[in-house]
Every structure is written in C-alpha cells, then in structure tokens.
Specification:
single chain; 13% helix; globular; mainly beta; 387 residues; 5-stranded antiparallel β-sheet
C-alpha cells in the first residue's frame, strides 16, 4: 500500500498515463469499499434484529360465542409435537375463571382451535373457596385483577418427558393462594385429544405466593431441573422424578426478590418466561422484568445460562427484546407482554405471548443471529409476527 501511495504522489497530472489513471481509480474504489465495509459493520453492530411481518397480530383473540373464552385469551404454552406447533392458552370467560384452551398449527402462525376448554380447575386448584377469598364473594374485575380473573388455571408452561406432556401452571384461588402446580397427559392421549389429565399436584408450599416456575426440557446431570427463581439468583431444584409431587410435604422452597440490575432496564425482575431452550451457547432463557423508571410495563429480556450449571448466567440482554408498544398489548391491561411458550422451527425462534392480558400474539427472530447478538453484547430484539 505504501509503494502505491508513493507512486501516486510522485505523479504529476500532466504526466499521467493510462495505466496510472487505472491505478488511481482502483485505489479510490478500494478505499471507498473499505469505508463502506466499516460503515456497514458499525451500522449492523447497533441494529436490532428485524423480523419479517406476515400480517397483523394478534393471532388469537377472545370469541364472544364461547362462554369460557369470551373475555380474553392469553399467555400460551407452546411446544412442537408430531409435526405441529401446539399451544395451550389461558382463557377467561364472564365468570372470571381461567381455563386452558387449545390450538394447533402446521406453520406456527395459522392456528386451528377447539371450541371447548381442555383443562379446567377444580376445588383447591383454582376454584375460589369462600373461606379463603379476600374480597367480594363473587367475581369483580375491580377486586380480582389477575389478568381480569378471580381464580383458575393461569400461565401454563409445557415440556415433554418420558412420553408425557407435563404442564406446570399457577393455581389461583381468589387471592386465597397463588401456588405453582403440575399435571401431565400421555402424548398418545394428547394426540387423540383425550383430555384426561393426571390429578394436579402442588410444587410450592402452602401460605406462600409463587409464580413463573419453569421446567427444563432435558435432564441436567441425570435429574429433572425446575427453575423456581431468577432473582436474587438463579435457583434450581433437581429431582429424580416429576411424579414425586403430591405426596405429603414434597414441596420446593423458593426465595424470590424482585430487585434486579439497578442500573439497567430490568431493575424490577418478575420471573422466567417460557421453558429454557437448548442452544450451542447454553440454555436460552427469556424472562419478564420492569423498569422502575418506566413503570407499569412488562418487558421481555433474554439470558444464556451455563449448559451444565444453569445457575450461572453467561450472557444477558442489555435492553428489552420485546416491549408493549402495540395497541393489542395495551387494550385490556395496558403495558403487558407476557411470554409462556417458545419454539424453534428451522432457523426461526418463535415466541408466543399474551398481549395486554387479552390476546395471543407471536414474535420471532432468526435464532443464530439472535444468539450472536446476545453473546457478543449487541442488541438483540424481536418484533410482533404479522400473519
């Protein structure tokens, strides 16, 4: 390069030959191309991942003709089985009781749903008990604001193990208790739509409030792993069997502290989102948090946990990957994006979430690009999928 510059500087404009002109043009083009590469690299470093928009979210909404889901449908679990994406979503009717609805899709975007609930609460697992209800002994959206309901089965997450679909959920009993519970259904019955779920068992002890627990979709060091807190630290319970609960005092004791990174967007941590996803970099965990400087907005972040010891956080998003900016995320309960399910289809990471505690929406990213930005301390983000 130095010899080229010396040759160019030694030339006078009157003595330039054809070869010299070509040399100068080539050098100028090379210089401009280098500048363009630097500019493009700097631009991409700060550019969040953009998603292809298929059409307008939300992908599911309440159906007035269905009494059990006439008010809201939101916070869906999601998993892939038998060539389809299956979602089990929280549904709310005029009675204020949350039940679980079902829909499936070949492409992860266009869903067919059943006209009836596939899981409903029973006494002590979501049906309000007058002896424990704190407030009016009938449904009131003012007093019972947990997604607009006063009891039921809330915020499901699903993992597949040992030929079964294990569904964890929040059992909400009119503010009498908010506890984590677990049920399961053999996959052959699931495929035949025979909704004979196993009797639910509590994961969390009585007289404590717990939400946002997730089960890892693979065993870790030969045991099932249940993540039950991410603040003040990532806390995981390892158990030999998921069927051990419901027998006496077999509960998971958890400590939750809402304080997050005080100088970041997630200084008020709410909890984990969908079950973790295995990646070459570790476990991808999405989580919910709020910013005390931007209150009343549930936002979604991402972190990578160590593959063998997922109590270790390797990477964490510097900014939210999804914020409640769309009208359907502010329609019923303003400022809420709440994700309970995520799947990988080909190269795409698709996240299913509740918008405004009323709708089911979806967001996606190229998984490889998303992980690259997350692990290289760049800004990774997802946007609403349009169907």
């Amino acid at each position: 390069m130095g010899s080229i510059l010396e040759k160019i500087s030694a030339l006078s404009f009157t003595s330039l030959g054809f070869g010299d002109v070509v040399l100068i043009i080539v050098f100028a083009l090379f210089f401009l191309f280098t500048l363009w590469l630097i500019f493009f690299w700097a631009l991409e470093i700060g550019r969040p991942i953009k998603l292809n928009r298929f059409s307008e979210n939300p992908i599911l909404g309440p159906i007035p003709e269905h009494w059990w889901e006439s008010s809201a449908v939101f916070n869906p679990a999601a998993f892939v089985f038998d060539g389809k994406v299956h979602i089990l979503y929280r549904a709310l009717g005029q009675d204020g009781i949350s039940r679980i609805g079902y829909a499936s899709s070949r492409d992860g975007i266009h869903f067919e749903r059943l006209p009836y609930p596939v899981y409903a609460p029973d006494r002590n697992f979501g049906i309000p008990n007058p002896n424990r209800v704190w407030g009016p002994l009938s449904y009131s959206t003012y007093h019972y604001a947990s997604g607009g309901g006063w009891g039921g089965v809330e915020d499901p997450r699903i993992v597949l193990f040992d030929g079964k679909a294990y569904m964890s959920f929040v059992a909400f009993d009119g503010w009498g208790f908010i506890r984590m519970a677990l049920t399961s259904l053999p996959l052959p019955k699931f495929a035949r739509k025979e909704w004979q779920w196993k009797s639910a068992a509590f994961l969390s002890p009585p007289n404590e409030i717990h939400k946002n627990w997730v089960i890892f979709p693979e065993k870790i060091n030969g045991k099932y792993a249940i993540l039950h807190s991410i603040s003040p630290k990532v806390s995981i319970e390892y158990v030999k069997s998921l069927d051990m609960f419901g027998n006496g005092d077999a509960y998971i004791h958890s400590i939750y502290d809402s304080r997050g990174r005080m100088d970041r967007w997630d200084n008020w941590v709410r909890g984990a989102g969908p079950p973790p996803i295995a990646t070459p970099h570790g476990w991808l965990l999405l989580y919910h948090a709020m910013d005390r400087n931007d209150p009343n907005k549930y936002k979604l972040g991402a972190m990578i946990l160590d593959k063998h010891d997922p109590t270790k956080v390797l990477y964490r998003s510097n900014r939210p990957i999804l914020e409640p900016d769309m009208p359907y995320e502010n329609n019923w309960k303003p400022g809420v994006v709440y994700a309970c399910g995520a799947v990988v289809i080909g190269a795409r990471l698709i996240v299913y979430y509740g918008g405004g505690d009323k709708y089911v929406a979806a967001a996606q990213a190229n998984l490889e690009e998303f992980l690259h930005k997350l692990t290289s301390n760049q800004h990774a983000s997802i946007e609403p999928v349009r169907v």
